[in-house]
């Protein structure tokens, strides 16, 4: 029998809420965390809005020894991992030595830390560059720091697939549980809202240049003109279902299915791979399209990309075949943090029987989707599909189900 893998802990740091409860309350109510960038002066850049995590003071959550060696991204990740383990009721020191691991996703690493050290190098000299630069910038640093902090010495790793990374990391974590690991902390936290990271993100050509938070990021809208970046994400605790039940753990739901593909070369004439990724996820879950109750969309807010996603959903589920939502319209696109935050949101939606809205959509184009807009919708939910696409051709889809 295939091992069932469940989620027993959530740790969220998002632009519209620090902590799971604050995030979920804001998301249900349709409250946005998008505003003008404050982490640096954005006035010289064409894009000036972002989703920044509010009220986060690292000194309130972490020992002082960790602060000089960590980027803002890693601090968010360490705190989110703490919260996820606490939520799951797991004390890592009580686990067998190699029973637990960490699998995270990253799209950039500690850009802000690296930027500051480069500034020191060129303005003062190499003797002023921190020794911590050797790892604080690295895309695998979140996995390493979480592992060290909690003594999680089991199978671990990092996945780099841009916006699809959060789903890919959870799939890798599920794989490790099925291979015998007891606990895996997994998901993604990203934060590249600094001038160096901003310049890198602008090269995509997909960032909105609108200065109005109410209109800048409008997926599946006739006036869509790019996305707003954000920081944060979610880390989840995954366990084997039987072990979780044996210790009396509260279960949010299970990771039921996963599929991933890569788009063909542009100009090849072949169809994008998203529909196939969705079909693979459904097959892996043993479900038919009619078994899915809601889709959490990738929501690029680039018309051509929105049409590709809508077409894939219509081909699998039929025109307006089921509700579709994009809560990331309240947070911005969080790179590798996006997929895992959507999975956490989907599990909370299933728990509470409510589909959060896609905000700011005022001129919905005819994508043949039943897009949930303006306000949350009550619904009986048992299964949700989460879709994510990474820049360059990554496509991932993950199915979560209730704990029943």
From TrEMBL:
Keyword entries, A-Z: Acyltransferase, Transferase
Record flagged with keyword Transferase: yes
Domain Ketosynthase family 3 (KS3): 2-402
CDD domains: CLF
UniProt cross-references to SUPFAM superfamilies, sorted A to Z: Thiolase-like
Gene Ontology MF annotations: 3-oxoacyl-[acyl-carrier-protein] synthase activity
InterPro entries reported in the protein's UniProt record: Beta-ketoacyl_synthase, Ketoacyl_synth_C, Ketoacyl_synth_N, PKS_Beta-ketoAc_synthase_dom, Thiolase-like
Presence of keyword Methyltransferase: no
Gene Ontology BP annotations: fatty acid biosynthetic process
Xref: PROSITE patterns: KS3_2
Record-stated family: Belongs to the thiolase-like superfamily. Beta-ketoacyl-ACP synthases family.
Descriptive protein name: Putative ketosynthase SimA2
Source organism (scientific name): Streptomyces antibioticus
Gene: simA2
């Amino acid at each position: 029998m295939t091992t069932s893998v469940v989620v027993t802990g959530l740790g969220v740091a998002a632009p519209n809420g620090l902590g799971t409860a604050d995030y979920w309350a804001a998301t249900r109510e349709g409250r946005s965390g998008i505003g003008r960038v404050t982490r640096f002066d954005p006035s010289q850049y064409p894009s000036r809005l972002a989703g920044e995590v509010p009220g986060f003071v690292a000194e309130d959550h972490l020992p002082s020894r960790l602060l000089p060696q960590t980027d803002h991204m890693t601090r968010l990740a360490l705190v989110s991992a703490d919260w996820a383990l606490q939520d799951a009721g797991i004390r890592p020191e009580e686990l067998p030595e190699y029973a637990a691991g960490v699998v995270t996703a990253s799209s950039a690493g500690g850009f802000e830390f690296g930027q500051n050290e480069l500034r020191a190098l060129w303005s003062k000299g190499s003797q002023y560059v921190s020794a911590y630069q050797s790892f604080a910038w690295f895309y695998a640093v979140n996995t390493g720091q979480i592992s060290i902090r909690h003594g999680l010495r089991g199978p671990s790793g990092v996945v780099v697939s841009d916006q699809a990374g959060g789903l890919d990391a959870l799939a890798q974590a599920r794989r490790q549980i099925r291979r015998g690991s007891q606990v895996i902390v997994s998901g993604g936290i990203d934060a590249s809202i600094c001038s160096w990271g901003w310049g890198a993100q602008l090269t995509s050509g997909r960032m909105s240049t609108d200065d109005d938070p109410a209109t800048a990021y409008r997926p599946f809208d006739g006036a869509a003109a790019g996305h707003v970046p954000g920081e944060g994400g979610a880390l989840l605790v995954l366990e084997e279902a039987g072990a979780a039940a044996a210790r009396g753990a509260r279960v949010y739901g299970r990771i039921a299915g996963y599929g991933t593909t890569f788009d063909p070369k542009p100009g090849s004439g072949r169809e994008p791979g998203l529909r196939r990724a969705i079909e693979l996820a459904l097959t892996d879950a043993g479900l038919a399209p009619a078994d899915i109750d809601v889709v959490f969309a990738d929501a690029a807010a680039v018309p051509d990309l929105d049409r590709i996603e809508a077409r894939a959903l219509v081909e699998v589920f039929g025109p307006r075949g089921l509700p579709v939502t994009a809560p990331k319209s309240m947070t911005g696109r969080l790179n590798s943090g996006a997929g895992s935050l959507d999975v956490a949101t989907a599990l909370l939606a299933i728990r509470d029987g409510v589909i959060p809205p896609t905000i700011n959509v005022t001129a919905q184009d005819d994508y043949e989707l039943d897009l949930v807009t303006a306000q949350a919708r009550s619904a009986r939910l048992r299964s949700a599909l989460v879709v994510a696409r990474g820049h360059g051709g990554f496509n991932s889809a993950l199915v979560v189900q209730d704990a029943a």
